[in-house]
Structures are given as C-alpha cells and as structure tokens.
Amino acid sequence: MTIGTTSRSIIRNVGELIKKRRAVLPVVWVSLGVAGAMAVASLFDGIPAAARTGSLKEFLTANPNCAEATDQCRSCVIFDTSKASCSVIGIACQPQSWSCREPRR
C-alpha cells in the first residue's frame, strides 16, 4: 500500500463518517427536544396555572383587607373583593402564590 492509497482510504472513511453523522444528528436533536418537552410537561401534569398559584379571587376572599396584591409577576390594586386592576404578566415570569403588599387602611 502506498502513501497515496492510504490517504485516499482515510479521506473516504472520513467522508462516510460525515454522511452518517448528518443522518444521525437530526434524529438525536429531535429526540432530545421531545424528551425535554415531555419532562417540562410532566412537571405540570396538566394542572392549569390558576390552580398551581391559586386565583386572585380566592386570595381576595380569604384576605378582604388587602389593598394591593402580587404574585411576583403581576401587581394588582384591589378596589373591592370582586374588582381589581392588574399589571400585565411578563413573558418569562413564573407566578408564585398571591401575597398582600399593602393592607387596606
């Protein structure tokens, strides 16, 4: 075997590896994406966000003397137990349990 023949066979083998990798890599990425999505979905088990953090209405019923409430994403000014004005939630914010920031005077 000459040096030229060895170089050609190495190049051929590298070319075959690259072709195989191109076929396998998208499958790996899709598999990782699906597994990640399933893991995130299993964290919540289909529970609606209001049930995870409790609704503002439930909080206000239990805390009628609260004038301002927050879930660490939204701030709400409470007019009475059925009316409130709230800020818009940020796109990446994860709401926590409601808490009273300002008691009614």
Give a short overview:
The chain has 105 residues and is α+β, with helices and mostly antiparallel strands. The chain is 51% helix and 19% strand.
Detailed description of the structure:
The protein is an alpha+beta fold. It is 51% helix and 19% strand. The protein contains three helices and four strands, in the order H-H-H-E-E-E-E. A four-stranded antiparallel sheet has the order 3-2-1-4, covered by helices on one side.
Topology:
Blueprint: H1 3-44, H2 49-53, H3 56-62, E1 66-70, E2 75-80, E3 83-86, E4 99-103
Antiparallel strand pairs: 1-2, 1-4, 2-3
For the structure shown, list the relevant keywords.
105 residues, 3 helices
Provide the gyration radius in Å. 28 Å
Strand content: 15-25%
* Helical percentage: 40-55%
Strand order of the largest sheet: 3-2-1-4
Count of alpha and pi helical runs: 3
Terminus-to-terminus distance = 94 Å
User: Poorly predicted ranges (pLDDT <50, ≥5 residues)?
Assistant: 46-51
Order of helices and strands: HHHEEEE
Topology, number of strands = 4
